Amino acid sequence: MKAYVFPGQGAQFVGMGKELYDNNPVARELFEKANEILGFRITDLMFAGTDEDLKQTKVIQPAIFLHSVILAKTLGEEFKPDMVAGHSLGEFSALVSAGALSFEDGLKLVYKRALAMQKACEKTPSTMAAVLGLPDEKVEEICNQITDEVVVPANYNCPGQLVISGSIPGIDLACEKLKEAGAKRALKLNVGGAFHSPLMEPAREELAEAIENTTFSQPVCPVYQNVNAQPETDPATIKANLVAQLTAPVRWTQTATNMIAGGATHFTELGPSNVLQGLVKKVNKEVVTEGKQ
């Protein structure tokens, strides 16, 4: 069975999507439609901007979404997923590609999400850290020991790799404790804030309203969602999970495990990175992975 997966923030590079734009009329039309919807030429920043341009949350999220979704659209009849999933932001790409959301509505929600997250980051300085080489349970235990600050598991990426999220003092303290507990690395990430933590609550509230007012349809195949790693097809459930996603952890290890248990033997990553292929392989080396950019 074929699974398609869609990357999240951090997958961007200058020049992303340019080849698609230059060589495919369907892609060009969709990119131009996106420029119109956003009210600025995001294609200029994607194709010829600077790394700094692409680091802005309001640019990076729609840019990765566009690259992934437009790739899926240009595959035409070849795109026949048995199941889909996306990592964080990538969940929106997965939902649009599977027909649960229109291209226009998906882009508007992603842009709204990016602006709301940016605002939440500016309100409360916060950060994230990657923890390597400890079991998930040990990382959870250490996060739970820190009660004066916000520190939570944010991205369960693959066995032995978990990203934590929270206040700056909380993450500093957690990194110390995790190294003492034997982590190979506990390294702060260069991110704008504490994504997938309670500190994103203001963004969640803002996005909840926008999602509530957007029409969702039944997808063409199950969408494995971040918050519960389960296959969903019911529009109301998909909406509720999408709202919860901003303050809840991304359960990617569990998602890949469940997709494989559900019959997936072949994973194709659509978008500007090959990160998810690597993570899936760490969950199960037997599955076939490939990427399209």
Descriptive notes:
- It is a single chain.
- 49% of the residues are buried.
- Helix content is 49%, strand content 17%.
- The protein has helices spanning 18-23, 25-38, 42-48, 51-55, 57-74, 90-97, 103-123, 136-145, 168-180, 201-212, 235-244, 252-261, 275-283, and strands at 2-6, 83-86, 126-132, 151-158, 161-167, 185-188, 223-224, 231-232, 250-251, 266-270, 288-292.
- A hairpin with a 6-residue loop joins strand 7 and strand 8 (231-232).
- The chain has 293 residues and is α/β, with parallel strands linked by helices.
- Helix 5 (57-74) runs antiparallel to helix 7, helix 6 packs antiparallel against helix 7 and helix 10 runs antiparallel to helix 11.
- It is built from 13 helices and 11 strands.
Q: List low-pLDDT spans.
A: none
Radius of gyration, taken over Cα atoms and rounded to an integer in Å: 18 Å
Alpha carbon gap, first and last residue: 21 Å
Strand content: 15-25%
Number of strands: 11
Summarize the amount of helix as a percent range: 40-55%
How would you state the average pLDDT, rounded?
Answer: 95
Biggest sheet strand order reads 8-7-2-1-10-11
